[in-house]
């Protein structure tokens, strides 16, 4: 099995781990966003809470969620290892450097963006995931069945202006991260082709870097406006 | 000294095959007992080092560059000739042989040149097998083009970077042998002397350019693959580091020097722009396939263009002189290099040159663009046009390109026999460093061919003959007196250079040497001028040893010291070149003596008196060198006046 | 033109270096950047100061020797060109130009602006070749290579090994260099026999030399004097992963 460890500890192997975990997280974002669109339904949170129940009780989803947690950790840990390695590759920095002349800002700052996102995930999970699993969430009853009322937790959290602003900023960060990250993941896997790469780039830049973060950012804004009866 | 060329007996086409059979072989198990030093890692050096290592010899390869891949073979643009006759246009080994002999103005050996033409076909096979991406046709077969002075399409090419691709092929073969442990590589290491003991080459003394350390390396044989000496002119198309030191020091140890005055001036270079100019850039000769060379018909128009009062595009057709097409209707713009260069010089001498300096002629693509469209021209020469624009700041699609001849290649070099051995047993010279195959003028796309022929297909056979004769025990250790004395001498020379502490930077002295050589020993020469040159060079030599300024220390990276040591040798070589040019009272190829020309200004050979290779023998410090003559015998070609009319 | 230069001066690998300022008053815009350095060195020598050491050789953009990091970019502001192909007309009168050596752990500074790039040679030695001994080749036209394939291989083969890709990369990664060679030989039929080991060995050597990983910023390709495409890096990734998954090499 030497070849497995050797492969995964090579610079290319590590990038493959980054790519696979990253692309998996991208696919998760689609599901997460689609589900959370229930927030916009205007039904007092019933659809959202039913969806939450499904997500926390379906065995398949529960299994995948562990893969998801692992992916986040591995992605972050590998990024840390790679960043240290990359920094060590240039022990003496240039006195004067002009990187903006040859590369996009996002591509050079994936580490910083990723760190912001990691902090965001921690806050996000503390607010919702932790409350859902270990906190005291009020209950709601639909058609005689009891549901944890996560929608209420959402309303409390997104009722705070600073929290909404934080969310929006983090969604900008995720936009930049995916602007580069999505297509980069395919490059790492060697999936580059005259015919398909433009499609991947289009998806990465417009769908993953703009539409998804915009949809996510709309949620706290919408809930905030609703909670404060502005709409 | 009796020069034995060792050309084998028998019919021309069978000489090489017979010779290969007659050569002694080294048994495979014994090959590992031999060490061979290869100096230089260009086409000749890298291909020789790799091929010899593949055979089982232990090779030490040296280069002054930081990597073997940077040797100046890399800069060859146009292509490599081979008598494959893939185009079905009448090419053959004999035709390539004939063209090369004639192109060299009948001053090369028939035997060597025929062998070169024979192995040319193997070179292409070898390079393709290595992964050299030669240009191809859509169906997948190799593409060819015709090239300077040839009427068949036999030139193989890889865009405008043929030399690069061939060198990288040889470099990859060399790298493979380094990985195999059969080649030990010494980069940033310069050979400063040859060690001769008991009449045989025993090894070399080198300087580590990073640490300044003087070191000795012992071997059974030494191969000098150190390129040409065009930098004696200061401005040339050679790389800045190209030098004659290895060859010159071997010469001073007893290797005779062949035809030093035979230098090639390439017609299509970018003209000089100012006194600070450090080197000249070649524009591939292939440009002459589509470009038309011209100057204004009148001095007055030329004057206006020089002063910037008129653009060349404003000059109507009837006021232009397409001088090559006018003088050589059948070859037109494709006449050989020496002819094209000399004509350009004549135009400028008449006062019809263009550019601010008056030292340039036009190479115009307007007609080709009109005929084939800009796209086609771009596909063919795009990278060259870009390069031109980068250097001059002018767009050659709109304004005609300006070109002027520049020193490009030296046909002369260490005298070698048919086995490529110099007059010192065990010392070989390959590629441009030797004198053997191009006579007085080299045809386009033949330098790459010769370098690789020598390295891949000649030396692996011929070296065995010598090694088998001497036996594996015939080698001396590096702590023997011969090595120690040589090391000592080199140390003293370096100390001497460091202690001149004069006023002039070495580069400045080198420039002065270049001016003298270009003025008096360049495109055309006269007895009178050469005599002046000799005096000037002698004075410069004195100036050098009393007024050169080399700063820094000898035991560290010191580029000024490297240059000083090279320039000292160039000065000595320059004097020999002048002697050789003065001795050769005829015009042939690149050597044009104004006194010897036909009524219409072409080179006038004197076959009765000068059909020989001049081989100069060093006679010790301060003594004139001794001229030895190797008579050139032509049995298969008829010596005629070279005509491209 | 008047130019102010800030040049990295460092005596040798064991000594710390610093930027030193020089003034040049008579710079012609037709001069090449390296000729400007010749002029500087001439004046330094005449003043008795040691000239600046820098690597250069062919001065026509093909040998890959020159290696200056000029105003924050490898080979200066021009793209598709080496330092020796840069001319002073790319600058303005009164400009200040900062010149540093390539910076990478794998490219230690030898002196001033000169670095050691032997790591590149070692990478090629690890597999950047086709194993064919001299004399054993078959006729060149027996291997059919369609023009498009030959052209693509040539695009990759154009690499001059200057190291600008490493110098430009924020991670000092050598991926473009390695990719160019792996890709050239992976595209061509001649390279097929060894393509798996080649990718495995060259990547292993690249890592052993201490180069960083690829972040796909694209800086390498933009700064590459031969504009080598990122497509080749993708092909290297494909070659490497394919080799790792399917080669017989189970020991790493």
Automatic annotation (TrEMBL), chain A:
<keyword id="KW-1133">Transmembrane helix</keyword>
<feature type="transmembrane region" description="Helical">
    <location>
        <begin position="16"/>
        <end position="40"/>
    </location>
</feature>
<feature type="transmembrane region" description="Helical">
    <location>
        <begin position="161"/>
        <end position="182"/>
    </location>
</feature>
<dbReference type="GO" id="GO:0016020">
    <property type="term" value="C:membrane"/>
</dbReference>
<protein>
    <submittedName>
        <fullName>Succinate dehydrogenase cytochrome b subunit</fullName>
    </submittedName>
</protein>
<feature type="transmembrane region" description="Helical">
    <location>
        <begin position="60"/>
        <end position="83"/>
    </location>
</feature>
<dbReference type="InterPro" id="IPR011138">
    <property type="entry name" value="Cytochrome_b-558"/>
</dbReference>
<dbReference type="InterPro" id="IPR034804">
    <property type="entry name" value="SQR/QFR_C/D"/>
</dbReference>
<keyword id="KW-0812">Transmembrane</keyword>
<keyword id="KW-0472">Membrane</keyword>
<feature type="transmembrane region" description="Helical">
    <location>
        <begin position="110"/>
        <end position="129"/>
    </location>
</feature>
<feature type="transmembrane region" description="Helical">
    <location>
        <begin position="203"/>
        <end position="225"/>
    </location>
</feature>
UniProtKB/TrEMBL annotation, chain B:
<keyword id="KW-0472">Membrane</keyword>
<dbReference type="GO" id="GO:0009061">
    <property type="term" value="P:anaerobic respiration"/>
</dbReference>
<dbReference type="InterPro" id="IPR011280">
    <property type="entry name" value="Succ_DH/Fum_Rdt_flav_su"/>
</dbReference>
<protein>
    <recommendedName>
        <fullName>succinate dehydrogenase</fullName>
        <ecNumber>1.3.5.1</ecNumber>
    </recommendedName>
</protein>
<dbReference type="InterPro" id="IPR027477">
    <property type="entry name" value="Succ_DH/fumarate_Rdtase_cat_sf"/>
</dbReference>
<dbReference type="Pfam" id="PF02910">
    <property type="entry name" value="Succ_DH_flav_C"/>
</dbReference>
<dbReference type="GO" id="GO:0008177">
    <property type="term" value="F:succinate dehydrogenase (quinone) activity"/>
</dbReference>
<feature type="domain" description="FAD-dependent oxidoreductase 2 FAD-binding">
    <location>
        <begin position="36"/>
        <end position="448"/>
    </location>
</feature>
<dbReference type="Pfam" id="PF00890">
    <property type="entry name" value="FAD_binding_2"/>
</dbReference>
<keyword id="KW-0560">Oxidoreductase</keyword>
<dbReference type="InterPro" id="IPR003953">
    <property type="entry name" value="FAD-dep_OxRdtase_2_FAD-bd"/>
</dbReference>
<keyword id="KW-0285">Flavoprotein</keyword>
<dbReference type="InterPro" id="IPR015939">
    <property type="entry name" value="Fum_Rdtase/Succ_DH_flav-like_C"/>
</dbReference>
<dbReference type="InterPro" id="IPR036188">
    <property type="entry name" value="FAD/NAD-bd_sf"/>
</dbReference>
<dbReference type="InterPro" id="IPR037099">
    <property type="entry name" value="Fum_R/Succ_DH_flav-like_C_sf"/>
</dbReference>
UniProtKB/TrEMBL annotation, chain C:
<keyword id="KW-0411">Iron-sulfur</keyword>
<dbReference type="GO" id="GO:0051537">
    <property type="term" value="F:2 iron, 2 sulfur cluster binding"/>
</dbReference>
<feature type="domain" description="4Fe-4S ferredoxin-type">
    <location>
        <begin position="150"/>
        <end position="180"/>
    </location>
</feature>
<dbReference type="InterPro" id="IPR009051">
    <property type="entry name" value="Helical_ferredxn"/>
</dbReference>
<keyword id="KW-0479">Metal-binding</keyword>
<dbReference type="InterPro" id="IPR017896">
    <property type="entry name" value="4Fe4S_Fe-S-bd"/>
</dbReference>
<dbReference type="InterPro" id="IPR004489">
    <property type="entry name" value="Succ_DH/fum_Rdtase_Fe-S"/>
</dbReference>
<dbReference type="GO" id="GO:0006099">
    <property type="term" value="P:tricarboxylic acid cycle"/>
</dbReference>
<dbReference type="InterPro" id="IPR012675">
    <property type="entry name" value="Beta-grasp_dom_sf"/>
</dbReference>
<comment type="similarity">
    <text>Belongs to the succinate dehydrogenase/fumarate reductase iron-sulfur protein family.</text>
</comment>
<dbReference type="InterPro" id="IPR006058">
    <property type="entry name" value="2Fe2S_fd_BS"/>
</dbReference>
<keyword id="KW-0560">Oxidoreductase</keyword>
<dbReference type="GO" id="GO:0022904">
    <property type="term" value="P:respiratory electron transport chain"/>
</dbReference>
<keyword id="KW-0004">4Fe-4S</keyword>
<keyword id="KW-0001">2Fe-2S</keyword>
């Amino acid at each position: 099995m030497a070849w497995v460890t050797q492969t995964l500890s090579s610079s290319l192997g590590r990038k493959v781990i980054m790519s696979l975990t990253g692309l998996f997280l991208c696919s998760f974002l689609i599901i997460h966003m689609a589900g959370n669109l229930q927030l916009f339904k205007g039904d007092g949170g019933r659809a959202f809470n039913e969806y939450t129940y499904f997500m926390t009780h379906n065995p398949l989803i529960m299994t995948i969620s562990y893969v998801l947690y692992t992916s986040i950790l591995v992605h972050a840990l590998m990024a840390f290892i790679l960043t240290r390695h990359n920094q060590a590759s240039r022990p003496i920095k240039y006195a004067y450097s002009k990187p903006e002349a040859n590369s996009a800002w996002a591509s050079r700052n994936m580490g910083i963006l990723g760190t912001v996102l990691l902090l965001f995930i921690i806050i996000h999970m503390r607010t919702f995931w932790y409350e859902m699993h270990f906190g005291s969430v009020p209950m709601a009853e639909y058609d005689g069945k009891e549901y944890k009322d996560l929608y209420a937790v959402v309303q409390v959290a997104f009722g705070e202006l600073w929290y909404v602003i934080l969310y929006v900023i983090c969604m900008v960060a995720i936009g930049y991260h995916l602007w580069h990250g999505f297509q980069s993941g395919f490059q790492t896997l060697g999936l580059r082709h005259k015919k398909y790469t433009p499609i991947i780039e289009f998806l990465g830049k417009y769908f993953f870097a703009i539409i998804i973060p915009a949809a996510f950012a709309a949620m706290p804004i919408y809930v905030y406006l609703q909670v404060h009866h502005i709409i | 000294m009796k020069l034995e060329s060792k050309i084998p007996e028998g019919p021309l086409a069978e000489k090489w095959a017979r010779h290969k059979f007659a050569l002694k072989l080294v048994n495979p198990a014994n090959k590992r007992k031999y060490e061979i030093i290869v100096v230089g890692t260009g086409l000749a050096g890298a291909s020789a080092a790799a091929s010899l290592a593949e055979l089982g010899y232990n090779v030490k390869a040296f280069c002054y560059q930081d990597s073997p891949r940077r040797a100046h073979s890399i800069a060859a643009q146009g292509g490599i000739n081979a008598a494959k006759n893939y185009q079905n246009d009448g090419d053959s080994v004999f035709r390539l042989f004939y063209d090369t002999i004639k192109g060299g103005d009948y001053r090369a050996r028939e035997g060597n040149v025929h062998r070169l033409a024979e192995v040319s076909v193997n070179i292409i096979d070898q390079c393709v097998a290595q992964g050299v991406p030669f240009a191809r046709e859509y169906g997948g077969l190799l593409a060819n083009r015709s090239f300077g002075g040839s009427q068949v399409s036999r030139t193989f090419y890889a865009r405008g970077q043929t030399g690069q691709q061939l060198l990288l092929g040889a470099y990859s073969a060399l790298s493979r042998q380094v990985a195999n442990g059969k080649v030990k590589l010494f980069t940033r290491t310069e050979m400063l002397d040859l060690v001769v003991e008991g009449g045989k080459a025993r090894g070399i003394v080198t300087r580590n350019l990073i640490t300044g350390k003087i070191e000795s390396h012992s071997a059974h044989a030494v191969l000098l693959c150190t390129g040409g000496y065009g930098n004696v002119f200061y401005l040339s198309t050679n790389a800045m580091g190209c030098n004659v030191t290895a060859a010159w020091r071997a010469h001073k140890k007893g290797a005779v020097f062949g035809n030093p005055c035979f230098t090639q001036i390439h017609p299509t270079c970018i003209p000089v722009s100012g006194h600070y100019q450090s080197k000249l850039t070649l524009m591939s000769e292939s440009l002459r396939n589509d470009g038309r060379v011209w100057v204004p018909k009148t001095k007055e128009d030329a004057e206006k263009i020089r002063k910037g009062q008129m653009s060349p595009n404003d000059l109507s057709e009837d006021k232009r002189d397409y001088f090559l097409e006018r003088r050589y209707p059948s070859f037109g713009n494709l006449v050989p290099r020496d002819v094209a260069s000399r004509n350009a010089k004549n135009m400028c001498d008449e006062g019809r040159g263009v550019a601010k300096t008056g030292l340039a002629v036009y190479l115009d693509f307007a007609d080709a663009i009109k005929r084939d469209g800009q796209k086609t021209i771009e596909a063919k020469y795009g990278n060259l046009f870009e390069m031109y624009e980068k250097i001059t700041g002018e767009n050659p699609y709109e304004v005609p390109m300006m070109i002027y001849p520049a020193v490009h290649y030296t046909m002369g070099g260490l005298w070698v026999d048919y086995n490529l051995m110099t007059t010192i047993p065990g010392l070989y010279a390959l590629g441009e460093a030797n004198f053997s195959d191009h006579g007085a003028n080299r045809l386009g796309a033949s330098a790459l061919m010769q370098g690789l022929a020598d390295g891949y297909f000649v030396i692996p056979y011929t070296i065995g003959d010598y090694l088998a004769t001497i036996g594996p025990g015939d080698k001396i250790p590096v702590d023997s007196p011969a090595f120690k004395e040589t090391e000592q001498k080199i140390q003293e020379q370096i100390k001497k250079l460091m202690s001149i502490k004069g006023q002039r930077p070495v580069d400045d002295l080198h420039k002065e040497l270049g001016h003298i050589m270009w003025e008096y020993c360049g495109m055309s020469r006269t007895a009178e001028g050469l005599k002046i040159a000799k005096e000037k060079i002698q004075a410069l030599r004195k100036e050098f040893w009393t007024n050169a300024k080399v700063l820094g220390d000898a035991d560290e990276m010191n580029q000024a010291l490297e240059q000083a040591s090279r320039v000292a040798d160039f000065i000595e070589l320059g004097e020999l070149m002048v002697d050789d040019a003065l001795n050769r009272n005829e015009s042939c190829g690149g050597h044009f003596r104004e006194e010897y020309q036909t009524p219409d200004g072409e080179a006038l050979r004197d076959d009765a008196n000068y059909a020989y290779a001049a081989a100069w023998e060093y006679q010790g410090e301060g003594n004139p060198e001794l001229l030895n003559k190797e008579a050139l015998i032509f049995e298969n070609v008829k010596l005629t006046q070279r005509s491209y009319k | 033109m008047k130019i102010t230069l800030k040049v990295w001066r460092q005596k040798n690998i064991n000594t710390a270096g610093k930027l030193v300022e020089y003034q040049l008053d008579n710079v012609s815009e037709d001069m090449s950047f390296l000729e400007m350095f010749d002029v500087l060195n001439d004046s330094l020598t005449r003043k008795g100061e040691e000239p600046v050491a820098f690597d250069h050789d062919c001065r026509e953009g093909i040998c890959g020797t020159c290696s200056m990091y000029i105003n924050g970019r490898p080979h200066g502001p021009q793209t598709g060109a080496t330092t020796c192909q840069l001319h002073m007309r790319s600058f303005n009168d009164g400009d200040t130009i900062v010149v540093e050596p390539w910076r990478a752990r794998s490219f230690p500074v030898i002196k001033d602006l000169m670095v050691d790039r032997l790591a590149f040679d070692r990478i090629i030695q690890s597999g950047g070749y086709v194993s064919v001994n001299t004399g054993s080749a078959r006729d060149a036209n027996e291997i059919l290579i369609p023009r498009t394939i030959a052209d693509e291989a040539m695009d990759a083969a154009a690499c001059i090994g200057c190291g600008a890709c490493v110098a430009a990369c924020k991670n000092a990664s050598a991926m473009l260099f390695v990719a160019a060679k792996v890709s050239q030989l992976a595209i061509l039929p001649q390279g097929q026999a060894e393509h798996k080991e080649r990718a495995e060995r060259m990547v292993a050597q690249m890592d052993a030399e201490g180069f960083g990983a690829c972040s796909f910023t694209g800086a390498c390709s933009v700064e590459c004097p031969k504009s080598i495409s990122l497509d080749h890096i993708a092909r290297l990734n494909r070659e490497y992963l394919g080799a790792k998954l399917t080669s017989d090499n189970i020991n790493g």
